[in-house]
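Weekly sync, protein design subgroup
Attendees: M.S., D.O., the rotation student, P.L. (late)

Item 1: inverse folding check
M.S. brought a backbone from last month's batch and wanted to see whether the design step gives back something sensible before we order anything. D.O. pointed out we never logged the input encoding, so this time it goes straight into the notes. Structure tokens as presented (232 positions):
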């Protein structure tokens, strides 16, 4: 899925960067949620299993990418589905595969990180596994373009928004990883990781400004600061 994600971003003309120490092994990764592009940038950043809403399975391009990558699909209308997803997450983690999900439960316009739901933190809490916070940010490069233009939220239809994003072609997708923690219960995991992701969102703009323009993509698991850049 990592190679497929790179191909999708390249085809869409989207540059990308990854910052922070990449998680390894059976960890739960939690991130804010802004767009269908989030899964693509996350798949490029770190090989992992994803939890995504069931509807994505039928989407063009992104649905295929999700299915090929072994995404765990969640029916958001069913509480039983959430606990079934918890069981599958536990299985993947037992195999040593990191699992990433979006605890907000829906995508937003990026103005704030909304409350995290606690259910899917269960595998990390019960297994005493690390929870790794991550922040996704879409950095515009020209006047008149904002992160909100890239965000897909509310009742906006998928295909018209995708066409709008394809027309922008002047932003960088950024994902920044924070320090992992192990939590004693789901409630603590939800609110503390929420604060961690919110903090990462607050500093990611400053981090971007300290980096140069596009270049060759490089991923490193051994350095504290990882910068990946790919040209349009």
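Designed sequence read out in the meeting:
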């Amino acid at each position: 899925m990592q190679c497929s994600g790179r191909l999708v971003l390249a085809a869409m003309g989207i540059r990308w960067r990854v910052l922070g120490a990449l998680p390894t092994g059976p960890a739960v990764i939690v991130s804010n949620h802004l767009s269908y592009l989030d899964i693509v940038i996350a798949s490029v950043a770190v090989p992992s299993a994803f939890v995504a809403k069931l509807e994505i399975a039928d989407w063009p391009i992104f649905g295929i990418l999700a299915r090929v990558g072994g995404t765990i699909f969640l029916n958001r209308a069913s509480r039983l589905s959430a606990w079934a997803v918890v069981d599958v997450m536990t299985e993947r983690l037992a195999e040593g595969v990191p699992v990433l999900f979006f605890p907000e439960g829906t995508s937003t316009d990026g103005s704030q990180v909304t409350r995290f739901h606690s259910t899917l933190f269960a595998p990390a809490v019960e297994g005493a596994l690390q929870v790794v916070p991550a922040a996704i940010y879409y950095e515009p490069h020209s006047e008149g373009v904002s992160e909100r233009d890239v965000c897909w939220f509310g009742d906006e239809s998928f295909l018209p928004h995708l066409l709008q994003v394809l027309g922008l072609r002047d932003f960088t997708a950024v994902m920044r990883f924070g320090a992992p923690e192990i939590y004693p219960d789901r409630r603590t995991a939800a609110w503390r990781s929420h604060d961690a992701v919110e903090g990462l969102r607050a500093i990611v703009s400053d981090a971007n400004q300290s980096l140069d323009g596009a270049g060759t993509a490089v991923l490193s698991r051994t350095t504290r600061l990882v910068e990946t850049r790919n040209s349009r």
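Discussion: Residues 207-232 have pLDDT under 50 and may be disordered. Strands lie at 15-19, 28-31, 49-53, 72-74, 99-101, 131-140, 171-177.
Action: P.L. to compare against the previous round before Friday.
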